[in-house]
Amino acid sequence: MAGLTGALKLAALGKKVLVLEKQPVPGGVATNFKRKGFTFESSLHFVDALAVGGEIKDFLDECEVSKKIDFIELKEFGRVIYPKHDFVVKNDFDSLESWLKSNFSAEDKGIEAFFRGIRKFYRQFDGFANSKIPFWSKMLLSPFLYPSIIKTSCITFEQFMAKRIKNEQVRGILGTLWGFTGSPPSEVSAFYFLIVLNGCWGAKTAYVKGGFASLFSAMVDRIEELGSEVRLNTTVKEIISDGKKRVKAVRTDKGEEFRASTVISNANAIDTFTRFIDNPQLKEAYAKKLLALQKSISAVIVYLGLDVPASAVGMNYPIMAIGNSYDHQAGFKDCIAGNYRNCSLAVVSHTLLDPGLAPSGKSTICAMTLDSYANWSNLSTDEYKNRKKKVADCIIAHLEEYLPGLSGHIEVLEVATPRTMERYGSLPEGAIYGFAQTVAQSSINRLSQDTAIGGLFLAGAWTRPGCGIHGCFVSGQDAANLAAKYLG
Questions:
Q1: pTM (two decimals)
Q2: Helix/strand/coil percent split, the chain, to 5
Q3: Which one, 97, 167, 272, 443, has the greatest CB density within 10 A?
Q4: pLDDT for residue 277 is more than 80
Q5: Would you say the C-alpha torsion 136, 140, 146, 149 has a positive or negative sign?
Q6: How far is residue 337's CA from residue 333's CA, in Å, rounded to a whole number?
Q7: Contact (Cβ atoms closer than 8 angstroms) between residue 358 and residue 364
Q8: CA-to-CA separations, 54 to 50, 263, 470, 481, in angstroms, rounded
Q9: Hey, is 18 helix, strand or coil?
Q10: Cβ neighbours for 120, distance < 8 A, ≥ 6 positions apart
Q11: pLDDT at 454 over 80
Q12: Are 93 and 149 in contact (CB under 8 A)?
């Protein structure tokens, strides 16, 4: 998403762009795949900012991409399940605040203080984002104009909540979306978590008919209509610089060389600087810096093609978040240890939004839990195969507690592991969210799009602002802006 966004923006500005994509289809790890007539989203559960007035939707409108695709409105986020609570989250904070207060009346004042605090943060965040003054001037003025941004950048989301809310169950429910950021509330930056919280639970959004591959294909079509080019099945192996630390070309694995005065790398930052750049001094310096940073956790995803509609097994909302415990730090430890029965699950059925993704009368369900690469890294071929089956069986059994009869309707079963993420997504250790969104690696502390090599810019989950389709969209925009400025 970051690379395509950057390319589309530059093409719309009249620049001549060449996109080099190693996969046979656009979209990176966020694309679709098909099995026996079923179409699965490879990694996406939810994308915010696609409703009218949303940031991504506005950009697609401006670039004339929206007219190439059909949007399907999401009426609510979905069902959230905990040991003592089972409710539906709509896309607005007022209803969530009312539900929490009605179920935790002793925490009325704390809940009100929490929502007052996040609304203040969102007002200041919008003010910062929409301000036309230069970035570093905004940073200098932030303690006076945007103090909430500074404060949330320095604390975890757990600290943000604990200052206002004492009840652990309320804090657990408010921290549900930690699986979308990769770090539990006790570790994730409050700044980034609040951005994700607003996108998922605070605002309306939409799905794309035909799956998100339709969006990526439409972006490619528009890039080509604007006079630029997209080459698939093309793997870049080297970024070539001149003697003055400026990029001048890229070279592919087939020996093709493409000259350019500006390069945006949507590859992961570690490979970009430890493998692709040809300057040994910078390669060493960046390697020392980047390899010291904490990578995000990985995941296991179970893809199911059912011979009945998802509603037939009790899946009545497109998204279902299942939390075995209100203690997300304990849940994170279970993920690291591979205790899959105790791990939280993010479950999605895109066919509830778009029935055309499965044969008539059938459906898809995907269930994801976070996982450590270490649980999969040193397995032999047979051990790996056996572990995939064992983990899939465990997740399906867990899911069947909420979707009775599920196992009797499975027609297609696929499993993606951290090794799958590493192989197909070129993600070191399968780190699906890039560098972890900890306080020390979030906001202004996150890797910049700019680099020490003139004309080389970064885009994607490893850079600012961070993971998720929306985060990568912003990253692609920012990289394109830097490239355009560099080109004059």
A1: 0.94
A2: 45, 20, 30
A3: 272
A4: yes
A5: positive
A6: 6
A7: yes
A8: 5, 28, 10, 20
A9: strand
A10: 148
A11: yes
A12: no
Tell me, what's the pLDDT at 371? 97
Do 171 and 236 lie in one domain? The reply is no
Residue with token string 């929502």: 115
Looking at residue 210, its pLDDT comes to 95
| Rounded Cα gap, residues 290 and 36, in angstroms | 41
454: tokens are: 């003139």
Q: Pull the structure tokens for residue 80.
A: 């959230």
Strands 229-231, 18-20: pairing is parallel
Query: For 359-385, how does the pLDDT look when each residue is reduced to its tens digit (9 = 90+)?
Result: 999 999 999 999 999 999 999 999 999
| C-beta of residue 192 within 8 angstroms of C-beta of residue 437 | yes
Are residues 301 and 372 located together in one domain of the fold?
Answer: yes
**347, 320 Cβ separation under 8 angstroms:** yes
Counting residues of the chain whose pLDDT is more than 90, the rounded percentage is: 90
Query: CA-to-CA distance for 70 and 53, rounded, in angstroms?
Result: 16
- The DSSP letter of residue 327 is -
Q: What is the mean pLDDT of residues 153-165?
A: 97
Task: Determine the residue type at 387.
Answer: R
CA distance 462 to 290: 10
Give the separation between CA 75 and CA 88, rounded to whole angstroms: 11
**Domain end point (choices 186, 202, 218):** 202
CA distance 29 to 16: 26
Has residue 77 been placed in a domain? no
Sorted by sequence, the CB contacts under 8 Å of residue 134 that are 6+ apart come out as: none
CATH number at residue 289: 3.50.50.60
Please give the distance of CA 308 from its chain centroid, rounded to a whole number.
Answer: 30
Residues 337, 371 within the same domain:
yes
Q: Which domain holds residue 399?
A: 295-425
| Count of domains for the chain | 3
CA distances from 186 to 157, 168, 319 (A): 7, 12, 24
Of 193, 242, 263, 317, residue with least CA distance to 18 = 263
Query: 38-41 and 71-74 as β-strands: parallel, antiparallel, unpaired?
Result: unpaired
| Mean pLDDT score, 234-238 | 96
What pLDDT, on the 0 to 100 scale, is given for residue 345? Answer: 96
Cα distances (Å, whole numbers) of residue 66 to 209, 458, 466: 12, 26, 24
